[in-house]
Amino acid sequence: MQAIQCANCEYELIGAFCSNCGQSCKSRRGPIWQVTGELLHELFALDSKMFSSLWSLLVKPGELTDRFLSGKRASVLPPVRLYLVVSILFFFVFEIPTPDISKDNVYIGNTLLGGEEPIEGRSNFSLFNFGDTNSELDRWFENMFQDKIEVMKTDNPQVSIEKIFNSLEEILPKMLVFFLPLFALVLKTLYFFKRILYFDHLLFSLHFQTWLMVAILVIYGLALQNPWWSALSILVPIYLARAQKKVYKQTYWLVVPKTFAIIITYCILIVIAGVSSFISAIAML
Fold first, then answer.
1. Do 235 and 273 belong to one domain?
2. Which of 115, 134, 155 is the last residue of a domain?
3. Phi, psi of 123 (to 5 degrees)
4. Are 204 and 73 spatial neighbours (Cβ–Cβ below 8 Å)?
5. Containing domain of residue 125, as a range?
6. Helix 198-225 crosses helix 48-59 at what angle (to 10 degrees)?
7. What DSSP line would sit under the chain, residue for residue?
8. pLDDT (tens digit per residue) in 55-106
9. Are residues 212 and 272 in the same domain?
10. Are both 120 and 179 inside the same structural domain?
11. Which residue of 33, 68, 137, 279 shows the fewest CB atoms closer than 10 Å?
């Protein structure tokens, strides 16, 4: 009986994967519905590993990161896949609505959309309104978007706002992915003397961001029933502190101050990410 060889390295196949190069013995060729189904299954398969990893992430701070870093990777879902599945659900629930500004005077910065003079009796809807028309921020905005300002003055305000919010919906998830390496850099700075690899901090950031999105979804769902459930937000610093203690092996005397520093920095980075997303959305007009 002729041995089956790996299509990639021609090594003899024993089992479902090549022992030499690791390639699966399954063919990626076949009817499009079959190939598509296999790819979707691999990406979003809700198997026992998914549920156990998600449960561990939710109720055991730092446990999933610690297991992954200790080499027990086969028993947990890859962190990028877990993040991807949760983020898709998160942005599906928190879809950014486009406001109805048909009865408003619409300003971006100090630029009135759709005309030169505001219509009397209408309320004002503003984005990036800096107050003082002679401020440095206002002058920077006008110089940055000089060509866009002329377009905004002539286009229908509702159309311009819809374009901005549609672009924002595409940009924000990407911006949060870019945000993760910056968050990991903050951890690297705070734990500089621990001589921990940057990859380890990045993994911690990925797991924490995933947990935070799930926590926001749960708290939001509960708060819709009763606003008092929003008090569960206090779990964020508690979870973060316990996760650090588990992964970085430090006492709470060191972890608690770092937790407050991380939360403050995290909020600043989130604001920067949001503002950057809005600026990028305006630039795409």
1. yes
2. 155
3. -80, 165
4. no
5. 104-155
6. 80
7. -PPPB-TTT-PBP-SSB-TTT--BSS-S-S-HHHHHHHHHHHHH---HHHHHHHHHHHHSTTHHHHHHHTT--TTS--HHHHHHHHHHHHHHHT--PPP--TTEEEEETTEETTSSSPPTTPEEEEES--S-TTSHHHHHHHHHTHHHHHHHHHS-HHHHHHHHHHHHHHHHHHHHHHHHHHHHHHHHHHTGGGT--HHHHHHHHHHHHHHHHHHHHHHHHHHHH-GGGGGGGGHHHHHHHHHHHHHH---HHHHHHHHHHHHHHHHHHHHHHHHHHHHHHHHT-
8. 889 999 999 999 888 877 777 778 888 888 888 888 888 877 777 777 788 7
9. yes
10. no
11. 33
- 187, 111: one domain: no
89 and 124 in one domain? no
The verdict on 122 and 261 lying in the same domain is no
> Quick check: 243 and 61 in contact, CB under 8 A?
yes
